[in-house]
Amino acid sequence: MKGMISIVLTAALSWLAAGCVGYTTYPAGAGRDAAFNSPNVPPGPEVIYQAVAYATSRYPVTGAYAVNLPPELDPKRVEYVFDLLGDPDAGVLSPEAEAARLPVFHVGRVWIRGVHAEVDIFRPVLDIPGPAGAEVTQMVTLTLRSNIGSRWRVTGTRSSAIGLHEPPDRSLRDPVTAAVIAPPPTRVSETPD
After folding, report:
1. pLDDT over 90, % of the chain
2. Is residue 82 pLDDT above 80, yes or no?
3. CB-side neighbour CA atoms (13 Å) of 158
4. What is the pLDDT of residues 44-55, one digit of tens each?
5. Closest by alpha carbon to 71, among 40, 36, 30?
6. I want to staple 106 with a disulfide (CB 3.0 to 4.6 A). Which of 48, 122, 151, 152 is the partner?
7. Phi and psi, residue 176, nearest 5°
8. What residue ranges in 41-146 does DSSP mark as E strands?
9. CA distances for 52 relative to 11, 48, 55, angstroms
10. pTM of the shown model
């Protein structure tokens, strides 16, 4: 029985690796997981783009904002996400964006199984002050679907309570990557420091 399961699993993974469908879990989970654990593996960047585009349009902020992409997402795919996003107010999370105190959309878990995907986006909640000026976020889980050969689209959302989940660690991009993506204009602070 174990031998048969191994053969079926190997065949399924070979089929998935051939590029027919995605099978990705990011970040890597505990235990055994046959999925790819890199957000760079297609259709990871496309799924991330669709999730960020949906979240930034559904929960807009006024003016410039930054996007905290998975640190493993390579510069070429970072550029791909921002090229598709096409938002002049969007920029990578960089030291400059942090210094300007830009609102940040964080990309958390990316889970892809064939034509189904889920992405956790942590959106900034700007109308609720955090302790000592800390960032307040809300995790929104986006469900996405793709028909073979078509683009991914968001088909549902689930929101957690505000502040219930911690966003992923901040992944500041190096100056070379940040230069590839035009940094957004600086945000003017509404209150003096």
Report:
1. 56
2. yes
3. 7
4. 999 999 999 999
5. 40
6. 122
7. -65, -50
8. 65-68, 90-92, 104-114, 116-124, 137-145
9. 33, 6, 5
10. 0.80
Please compute Rg for the chain using Cα positions: 18
From the number of C-beta atoms within 10 Å of its C-beta (0-12, 13-18, 19+), residue 176 rates as exposed
> Nearest Cα to 114, choosing from 161, 159, 147?
147
Residue 55 · residue 97 · CB < 8 Å: no
Is residue 120 within 8 Å of 51, Cβ to Cβ? no
Closest CA to 106 of 151, 73, 150, 144: 73
Residue closest to 120 by CA, chosen among 26, 22, 23: 26
Between the two ends of the chain, the Cα-to-Cα distance in Å is 67
Given a cut of 70, whether residue 2 has pLDDT beyond it is no
CA nearest neighbour of 79 among 185, 179, 187, 184: 179
Pairing of strands 153-159, 116-124: unpaired
Map 20-47 to HEC letters: CCEEEEECCCCCCCCCECCCCCCCHHHH
Please tell me the distance from the alpha carbon of residue 116 to that of residue 112, in angstroms, as a whole number: 6
**pLDDT tens profile 20-61:** 457 777 777 645 566 778 888 899 999 999 999 999 999 999
